[in-house]
Amino acid sequence: MATNSPAQTSAPNLIGRLATFLYNRPVLFLILLLLPPLLWLGVVYLGSLATLLVQGFFYIDEFSGVVVREFTLRTYAELFQPANVDIFIRTVTMAGAVTVASALLAFPLAYYIARYTSGRLKAALYLAVILPLWSSYIVRVYAWKTILAKEGIITWLFELVGAQGLLETLLSLPTIGGASLSTSLIGMFIVFVYIWLPYMILPVQAALERLPKSLLEASGDLGARPIQTFWNVTLPLVFPGVVAGSIFTFSLTLGDFIIPQIIGDSSFFIGMAVYRHQGTAGNIPLAAAMTAVPMVIMGVYLVVARKLGAFDAL
């Protein structure tokens, strides 16, 4: 008859004693459980972030191009130069426009999925929303560059329906126009909305799923028309979900540097400017200082979003 060796029996006993020891000391167990992620967050993420922000208090010697590690605010003062202020305004405006457009496009689809679908149809539509996220980000952006090019399918469709004049009118608009959609801010806006739209649909759809149908039925029983029910019941209760989705679309647009390099004209955005200052120009202090701008903007944005109940909808 086979018997267990001392080594085989001691291991389970040791594990059992360790489990009992930790069970009787829940605070110690909680500390050990949270220690690895807290070390990663505190040392790797927050440490590197703090190091980056400290770099903004240094400056570049204009003669030698070497970083002078002396505490000064002159680099942060450069942020208020007109060229940099234009970059911040352009980026925030684009992020706001993308967020509003994403909300307007996402709400009808999310409402239809939540209220009028079930079973396989709901699963198919949900899959259709998240399917683009499975493909490469770079591939999708370059695909849109081809689609929006002067020889692309969008231009062909305008010519097919005889609306070439409308397209030319759009491209002739100052600031947002260009030689083609792929070299204009209009095209950049379209690509941004396409890339980040799923991040708006999912929170809105989740908020609509949590909306009790009994409230809508009660509103109808009290004599409210469907449009009144929407404005007075549905929208106020789902609005935190819209704000939650806007956190993703706004922040992702605010810091993106790939789309502005591939689509659009030569206008700089914050992420693109940081990339150029850090890489091509080698001006790490200015790149670090510019990185602080979207952090401040998102800090204010998150405070407002929290007051609007967005965190409860995530």
Annotation keywords:
314 residues, mainly alpha, MetI-like fold, two-stranded antiparallel sheet, globular
Description:
The chain is an all-alpha fold. It contains 15 helices and 2 strands. The chain folds into 2 domains: 13-68, no CATH class; 81-313, Orthogonal Bundle (MetI-like fold), CATH 1.10.3720.10. A two-stranded antiparallel ribbon has the order 1-2.
Q: How would you summarize this macromolecular structure in one to three sentences?
A:
With 314 residues, the chain is mostly helical. It is built from 15 helices and two strands. The protein has helices at residues 6-23, 26-55, 74-77, 82-116, 119-130, 137-148, 153-160, 164-171, 185-210, 213-221, 226-255, 259-262, 270-278, 284-307, 310-313; strands at residues 59-60, 67-68.
| Beta strands, count | 2
> CATH superfamily of the largest domain, called what?
MetI-like
How many domains?
2
* Highest-level CATH class of the largest domain: Mainly Alpha
Shape: globular
CATH fold type of the largest domain? MetI-like fold
**What is the distance, rounded to the nearest whole angstrom, between the alpha carbons of the first and last residues?**
59 Å
Which value, in Å, is the CA radius of gyration? 26 Å
**Oligomeric state of this protein:** single chain
Low-confidence stretches: none
Helix tally equals 15
Task: Please describe the topology of this protein.
Blueprint: H1 6-23, H2 26-55, E1 59-60, E2 67-68, H3 74-77, H4 82-116, H5 119-130, H6 137-148, H7 153-160, H8 164-171, H9 185-210, H10 213-221, H11 226-255, H12 259-262, H13 270-278, H14 284-307, H15 310-313
Antiparallel strand pairs: 1-2
Helix pairs in contact: 2-14, 4-9, 4-11, 9-11, 10-11, 11-14, 13-14
